[in-house]
Fold this sequence. Notes:
about 170 residues, Hypothetical upf0131 protein ytfp, two-stranded antiparallel ribbon, 4 helices, transferase, Putative gamma-glutamylcyclotransferase, transferase activity, AIG2-like, GGCT-like_sf
Amino acid sequence: MTIASVPHPCFFYGSLMEPRVLSSVTRPGPEADIYTVRASIEGYIRRPYHGAPYPGMISSQDKMQAVEGLLVFGHTLMDRFRLDQFEGSEYTREVLSVKILDPVPGAYNVEDGHKPLSPGDLVQAYVYIFTGPFEHLDQSREWDFGAFQRDHLDVWMKTSSDFENDS
């Protein structure tokens, strides 16, 4: 880990699971060493934001409920700053336990220099939790990543001021 790296990986459960969105937000340089693995977090639910293509994740009364997403290793402090700005005031960054679902190869496969990471292991990760107002979320349904990619991604990437447009 370099001095410019953040101490925890980041867990993403919404639009930032899409590589184009994540890269547009963090703008990693050519020297970036980012690795992504599927992961999940228990005790939370993911709900769509009313009138927007992204979700919010909130605590669930069912502690066995899980949200699947991506665990991303290798972000710098500047990347995290950009993520904080992107998430805005309705989301709070917390450090929570996230379960790894796939093997973690290479330089990222050791937690705190002690043991290799394996599927099923828990790691501490930065997670952006939705903090309200809760009426902004549609509590009647689960957010659908496939629908986001199919129905919203291309238009969002071209029109959102959060992203750098190369065209």
